[in-house]
Amino acid sequence: MSYHADLFGRLSEDGLKETFDWMADRYHSQTVRVSQSRYPSWMNQVITLVQSWRPRSIADVGCGPGYLLQQLHQRFPDTAIKGVDYSSAMLRHIPAGISTECCPLLDWAKTSSERFDVVLLTFVLRDQPDPQTVLTVIKNRVAPHGHLVVLETQTPTGWRKWGFDLYFHAWLPWWASHVLTKDWTGPRHLAPYRRLADSHRAWMQARVLPNALVAADYADIRPHRPATDVVMLWSAVAAY
Ligand SMILES: C[S@@+](CC[C@H](N)C(=O)[O-])C[C@H]1O[C@@H](n2cnc3c(N)ncnc32)[C@H](O)[C@@H]1O
């Protein structure tokens, strides 16, 4: 196993992929616990937003073990749905019948010829070595006037910041190393939830995401959750 972290604690693609492979079997249950059971309601909000656009095609990029994909597939049986992820261990959890592609997202965005009415990036952008390039290149896969959706963690503004910092940067790394990732065999400081806290620290894009979307030439950029929340949900339209 090889891990290469940059100065901001971001892993190179190889190290990151191995972390996600390791998480695959426990990703859903641990994400529900770590989110204090809020994960399904965040996903529901994404689904409600997507539903409002009545898309004919949806790509879930960095789909993980496919909770959102399965919900979308059940609710929109007539919509063409595709999941993309570079972790084959994650994709093994996705039922046959849902189309998937095992590929680094930038390679997929550069080489695929498909375009989708909706492209989803949920809890994916923050971990990328160059989020701006991802936003720019992924636009190739959004149909004209189609929507990009970004769901990510954010440090809330106001009093909730203190509780968030305590939880995310103190409690979560401790809980992870003593309970959630006890059987992790890689370097301690790169254990999944410790790394999550570090990558959130490096995730300065949270504040600049709207500008980053403008720079990538998206239009109609809208927030769907308040800045006082622990997750951000944005949508943008691919203007051509
Ligand atoms: C934190 S999980 C999020 C999973 C799912 N989208 C969700 O909201 O629960 C990030 C997923 O993105 C995948 N991923 C991260 N970076 C990627 C990349 N550069 N190319 C392809 N997949 C990537 C990981 O393998 C993992 O399954």
From TrEMBL:
<dbReference type="GO" id="GO:0008168">
    <property type="term" value="F:methyltransferase activity"/>
</dbReference>
<keyword id="KW-0808">Transferase</keyword>
<protein>
    <submittedName>
        <fullName>Methyltransferase type 12</fullName>
    </submittedName>
</protein>
<dbReference type="Pfam" id="PF01209">
    <property type="entry name" value="Ubie_methyltran"/>
</dbReference>
<keyword id="KW-0489">Methyltransferase</keyword>
<dbReference type="GO" id="GO:0032259">
    <property type="term" value="P:methylation"/>
</dbReference>
<dbReference type="InterPro" id="IPR029063">
    <property type="entry name" value="SAM-dependent_MTases_sf"/>
</dbReference>
